[in-house]
Amino acid sequence: MVAAMVALSAFTYIFHKGTIDGVRELGFPDSFRIQLAVLKVIGVIFLLLPQIPMPMKEWAYAGIGLFFITAIVAHTAHGDPIGLSLISVFFLALLVISHIYLHKMAEGAI
User: For the whole model, what pTM was predicted?
Assistant: First the structure.
């Protein structure tokens, strides 16, 4: 579910006018928006492919966590409705749970 959210977010960063305008309103340049979209796609690939080594998956989890934290800070600083930040908090929590279960699966506990 987290991977789907991040993939959808990356798609909207490139193709959805409302998201593009929203990122600009937050004060971020277009180059940052494109960079985030590309990094999100890479992160999703790293999370979903089982062949990816664990250290690379760890970096993907950290990067995606930073995306959610950045969204919370940016929306709060911009004075956006609390719902936008709560969505990011929800997905950050799911990301943490996913990370915990990744390690449990790797240890054979599941």
Answer: 0.88
CA 107 to chain centre: 25
Report how far residue 96's alpha carbon sits from residue 84's, in angstroms, rounded to the nearest whole number: 19
What does the pLDDT look like over 22-81, one tens digit per residue? Answer: 999 888 899 999 999 999 999 999 999 999 999 999 999 999 999 999 999 999 999 999
- How many folded domains does the chain comprise? 1
Residue with tokens 């929590």: 93
What residues make up the domain containing 99?
2-106
Phi, psi of 108 (to 5 degrees): 80, 15
CA atoms 51, 55, 56, 62: torsion sign: positive
